[in-house]
Specification:
Collagenase (Catalytic Domain), 13% strand, alpha/beta, 300 residues
Length: 300
């Protein structure tokens, strides 16, 4: 019994010392553990520093905390058809050449009746007397009255048209409105008949060729409207230029102007020159006013 009692306190003391060492080991890690922990903290700090430096702007002049402007690279063109190379704007096809004349047959005769563009246009010009006109297209000509009316308005609006004088205004009106003259687009046969009634023969080589003006009527020959004239075509003058010319020329007659001659080789042709027949060394010109001033040639 006594030996058991003696051994008990020793056992308890050893146990206590052992528990104490275990407790201290849990609370205070050894040197090796501390070194490992410090090394881990150091590695984490280095990695974080590398990330921060990498994320900073690479521009040497960029300020800290300021994001430099980014210029996006152009997006490559995507071909709409598989297997076909995409075309950039730098290699795009050149613009189509101007239309010199319209393809296909031109009706030589129509029904003799006319359909009218019923739109009312703006007053063209800033000051002066107002003259109203209607627009009509022969049935059977294959032309649209609205499109013809728009082309006539473009020719008469300028800049460079008769309204640039500052003493004249022009306005398209509907077919039942009060008007001063009518602009007709007629087939060759009808144009010949209408012009002859006004005392004008438009035949060249026995065929109705030119346009004309009769009293209160500006008559545009459909052949010329669609085909222009050979010397304009040879010179590469666009059909739109001839159309503007023929409208301003015949309206010029309606306004009281007579034919004029070429003022000199290489100079613009006066709009009242018979450009449908010849240029005589002049350059095609569809406008009666140039640079705000009336451009005219010697009287014919």
């Amino acid at each position: 019994m006594s030996s058991s009692r003696r051994s008990a306190p020793g056992h308890q003391q050893r146990a206590a010392r052992t528990d104490g060492r275990r407790t201290r080991a849990r609370r205070f890690p050894g040197r090796a553990s501390r070194r490992a922990l410090e090394a881990l903290v150091f590695v984490v700090a280095v990695v974080a520093a590398v990330v921060v430096v990498t994320d900073r702007p690479r521009d040497a002049d960029a300020e800290v905390g300021v994001v430099p402007e980014v210029v996006s690279a152009p997006t490559p063109a995507v071909s709409p058809t598989p297997g076909v190379a995409a075309t950039s704007s730098a290699t795009a096809s050149p613009p189509a050449p101007p239309v010199l004349r319209l393809p296909g047959p031109v009706p030589s005769a129509g029904r003799g009746s006319f359909g009218y563009d019923d739109r009312v246009g703006p007053a063209l010009g800033e000051a002066g007397v107002l003259r109203r006109y209607r627009v009509a297209v022969e049935a059977g000509s294959g032309e649209d009255a609205g499109e013809f009316g728009a082309a006539v308005q473009t020719a008469l609006a300028g800049p460079g048209s008769w309204v640039d004088s500052g003493r004249l205004r022009l306005q398209q009106v509907g077919p039942r409105s009060r008007y001063d003259f009518t602009v007709y687009l007629a087939t060759a046969a009808t144009a010949r008949r209408m012009c002859a009634a006004g005392g004008v023969d438009i035949r060249i080589g026995g065929r109705p060729y030119t346009s004309c003006r009769a009293s209160g009527k500006v008559i545009i020959n459909l052949d010329r409207w669609r085909l222009s004239v050979p010397h304009f075509v040879r010179a590469g003058v666009p059909l739109s230029v001839y159309r503007t010319y023929v409208v301003n020329h015949e309206v010029g007659h309606q306004l009281g102007h007579r034919h004029e001659r070429c003022p000199g080789r290489g100079r613009p042709a006066p709009v009242m020159m018979q450009q449908t027949l010849f240029l005589n060394g002049c350059v095609a010109n569809p406008w009666p006013y140039r640079d705000g001033r009336r451009f005219a040639g010697p009287p014919l």
